[in-house]
Amino acid sequence: MKKLTASLLVLVLSSSIAIAHAQQKNDTIKTKEIEGVVVTALGIKREKKSLGYASQEIKGDMISDAGQTNAVSALSGNVAGVQVTAPSTMGGSTRITMRGISSITGENRPLIIVDGVPLDNSNVNDIDTQRGAGGRDYGDASFDINPDDIESVTVLKGGPAAALYGSRAGNGAILYTTKSAKKGRTDIQLNTGVAFESIYIRPKLQNQYGGGYSATLPTANINGQTYNIQEYETDASWGPKYDSNLMYLPWYAFDPEFSSDYLKPVPWVAPKNDVDSFFDTGVTYTNNLSVAKSFGDTNVRLSYTNTNIGGIVPTSKIKKDNFSINLNSKLSDNLKAEAIFNYVHTDGYNRPELGYGDNSVAQKFYQFGQRNLDFVKLKDYKLSNGGQRTWNRTAWNDPTPLYSDNPYWIINENTSEDSRHRFFGNAGLTYNFNKNFYIVGKVYGDVYSQNISSRVAVGSQAVSDYTIEKRNVSEFNYEGRAHYNNNFGDFSVNSFVGFNIRDNKMSWLNGTTVGGLVIPNLYNLNNGVENSLATNASIHSSVKSLFGSVSLGYKDMLFVEATGRNDWFSSVNDDQFYPSITGSFVFSKALSIDWLSFGKVRAGWSSIASGGDAYKRLTYTVIGIPFNGAPQYSNPNTNNDPNIRPEVKTTKEFGIEASFFKNRFGFDVTYYDTKSKDLILPLPIDPATGFLFKNINVGEMTNKGIEAMVNVSPIRNDNFSWDITWNFAKNKNKLVELQGDLKNHILTNAPFRAQLAAQVGEAYGAILGTDYVYDANGNRVVDANGFYKASDLKSLGSILPDYNMGFRNTVKYKSLSLSFLIDIQQGGKYFSTTHMWGMYSGMLEESALGGNREAGVILDGVKEDGTKNDILLDAPTWGGTYYNTVDAQNVFDASYIKLRDVTIGYDLPKSLIGNVFQGIRISAFARNLFAWNLANKGIDPENTSYGSGNIQGMEGGSLPSTRTYGFNVNFKF
């Protein structure tokens, strides 16, 4: 990998590098972009040259042209310092971090803001789902952002850039600005597209041995005749080698109503229709219609987008409708009004279960199963009486599912539904007293309701069940600001003061049946064998804030800016003040060198505190499930501290950016150093206190790193341009200390083995498990049974990568354009439950031992006395060692090189489209086209995430990653 990466770097640097999204044909325009206006914190537009902190802007076309349906995952590989984990599961969670991890148990994602609205980005996946123990991935609330409406994205990468947002922006902020009508113009556009998704990276399965544990098939006397049968009850594939002359009764031969199969022996051979035939080609249809119109001093834009996603798992689908209104009007010479309103309705049906769960088809296909199953036969999953037909029969004469349901029963009977209705937007007034002084008043709102229901049908292997969950979330921000900007000779001032009142509410209601369902196919909480269980909760928190900023400039080349914000929380006792100071020096103004187009050095410092979750100061009684009709009350596991303090994150950063030769070559480099203290941690305490943990402030975590962008335009003229971007980010994270002798904090456990921990002295997210034992010569040691000896529990590596980088090339020739992005991650680790169980059960290709299982295995190593190992293990015993000996066998490097996207676009000539259209653009795209440098060729490292929180790298049972191909047609009227 190092050699390949170095080669890529040399290639790019030698061919020159340029910002791919800054496609310009005119050097003057290019200069204005470098020195131009960008959106900063609170949505305030500032001159880029005056900023003393790192930020990066991406045009919305880059997102929409690539056919993206997720505005957050679209950032992957495009922004230096931003790490995006975007599993290709339909509508799944997207994990995004900037500049590493700063909190052990708190929020590590950046704040997401759309047109000034702090957008709730909650993830409802429970802990079992996130740790790979089974559950459906319902994604993040940021999925509601409509890629077709995005004008630009500004990424504020650290504390100095985002300090004005206070406690929630300590991890940076991502600002989405949506499209609006332009004064004096009418713009009508129709954008329609289709994308096709097919399975790509998935575990490689063996095709030489069938189900069972014995090398021979058992027999049974049925109706006076002896038949070879199968170990139907065994969910493993250590059975006999395939032999076309060996006849047996398959699992589907025992139902008289299927007369063509009833008691009909078939050959013991590999199936014609294997696992891959189960998956569909996913299809996504996207249609957007927007109308922008200017009426004198009033500008209005209306937009509607319909998105229909069909997943690779049959029956799974998502439908999303986005409707937006963007309005601004000049009411008088001094007064301006503006409002943006968005409504989003998202409907999901049967999002696939992931991880090690009863309804996870990935678990059935790649971990525990029988390799002789033909999926055409599995499609007949149901009897006329409604009962299930599964391959995993308890016995030939007992059709009760023992461990596994038929996968087609799972996707047709054990289904889920989810729905979210969301309203978000803002309304405000701006009054200009004169050209230097104005005031702004705005209200920002984000309100949504989410309903989720799931079913387990009568006749399933698991207890039948019906569960519903309802969530209502709201946030309102009331903000006022007074701005004063002026120039005094060589000096300039840009300043404002303001206030913000934030109000958050969340209510949650859950109901589930108990003891199973009485009447099949009746999904109602009143249909439980016992009284259904209902639970609910509500949360209300608020923050009141005062803030201000002063930026002083000298001769348009030297700038100093100071900001301050004070928050009063409802969740902690003490208020918090967040200062920041930044400075920039535009040295190109002082040097006046022809070949230097632009140059600036900058530095910044900030201190931001996180207020913590609501209700962290007091300890509340837990109401348990009634026992024999008697209510139960108890203490919670964790005792809260009334004097808990916010976590504090201090950031220092330094940067230099420059552009040369009329902006044909440029770079932007930032070094940062952050320190997080007073981390909130549930510390283990004596159970005699009545609690297992107590929330306290402890420890320190640091992040140090570098972000770089290098850009060159090797060719640029009236007809042809070539731009390339290289971005690079390397972060070194370290948990410096916890408390006293405490060396780690366990974040979670994988479903069976391995743990995820914050380990003192190491990078966050250490995977704890057993390693090989080595002798003095570096040989692996085996025990008396011939198994590898296992070490004590130790760190097997961190989930955090060593570095990330991206290369984007964009070539334009007249009306034709081509762009592609290579996304690279080096380092990081993940633990694979699929590899562990797939080897244990004889499912994976490696377990076939090249078709010679009969020879057994002698592990490469030495005995404890130093002699070469000669102990022969039979194949099933060897496979079992992947579970109960060395966990390091199932830990893999998370590096990858991906061709993330390719886009080709063509603007049809005016002579061809006539006067009806102002323009027609046809574009084709492909995403996740190829992946290289995978340590485990059957698992995509990005598919080891089942949530966007701190629990990552615990692969419990993932669906295949996917490739996507599609095209768009854009009509401008």
TrEMBL record:
GO cellular component annotations, sorted alphabetically?
Answer: cell outer membrane
Q: Record's InterPro entries?
A: Beta-barrel_TonB_sf, Plug_dom, Plug_dom_sf, TonB-dep_OMP_SusC/RagA, TonB-dep_OMP_SusC/RagA_CS, TonB-dep_rcpt-like
Q: Classify the source by domain of life.
A: Bacteria
- Sample GO molecular function, one term: siderophore uptake transmembrane transporter activity
Q: Where is the TonB-dependent receptor plug domain?
A: 49-173
Write out the GO biological process terms: siderophore transmembrane transport
UniProt keyword list? Cell outer membrane, Membrane, Signal, Transmembrane, Transmembrane beta strand, Transport
Please give, as recorded in its UniProt entry, the membrane topology of this protein.
Multi-pass membrane protein
Residues annotated as signal peptide: 1-22
Q: Where in the cell is it found?
A: Cell outer membrane
* Predominant location: membrane
Family classification: Belongs to the TonB-dependent receptor family.
The protein's matches in NCBIfam families, at most eight in alphabetical order, are given as: OMP_RagA_SusC, SusC_RagA_signa
Q: What is this protein called?
A: SusC/RagA family TonB-linked outer membrane protein
Q: Which organism is it from?
A: Chryseobacterium antibioticum
